[in-house]
Amino acid sequence: MDDVEITDVDENGDALPEVDAEEPKRPPRELPAVGLLAGELVWTHGRYLLPALAALLALLVYLANRRTRPHPASAPQDAEAVVRRQEAMEASRRRMQREQDAKAAVFREKRKQQEEEKRRQKIEEWDSMQLGKSFKGASGPLRNRDEGAPSGSAAKPKSDKKPLRSSEYSPLSGEGGGSCSWRPARRGPSSGG
């Protein structure tokens, strides 16, 4: 039994190297020259390449969408559909024009009424000014009271109200009583020197 040797084989039947055997050290893989050039290019000009690639991607997406979408001008149109659409647009235009004309007529009528009211007020003011009354157009009760009494004998009613404050009250001096008094500030520095 000593002459039997056991070896490990892989799927193809080739002998696998022994685990204890020293494997020859391979040199580290180096990038090919093209990879080095691309890495250096990205390292030095990356800030320009990234926006350029984003713009290129956006352009490609736009062109792909444009190619798949049918153009309305190139699609064959039915002559009857075009005529119906134009007639509908014309009917809509006529309807909107009628609405606008009605609004304009209402506006003109309101403006005419306002002008008539202003003219009437000016005539009333002129008449009252000619009669020697108030320029602003006296109201009805005031006009009747003035007409009933002679102009010289119209006496104003005397009020029996008490004045709000005494005649010697001065808000700047603080005299005349009150819960607080105000005095002007001193001149000069606040620290006192």
Automatic annotation (TrEMBL):
What are the subcellular locations of this protein?
A: Cytoplasm; Endoplasmic reticulum membrane
Q: Where are the transmembrane segments?
A: 48-65
Q: Does the keyword Endoplasmic reticulum apply?
A: yes
| Gene3D superfamilies given in the database record | 6.10.250.2950
Its domain of life? Eukaryota
Q: Which UniProt keywords apply?
A: Cytoplasm, Endoplasmic reticulum, Membrane, Selenocysteine, Transmembrane, Transmembrane helix
Q: Where is the composition biased (Acidic residues)?
A: 1-21
Write out the GO cellular component annotations: Derlin-1 retrotranslocation complex; Derlin-1-VIMP complex
Protein name, entry field: Selenoprotein S
Question: Might you name a Gene Ontology BP term for this protein?
Answer: retrograde protein transport, ER to cytosol
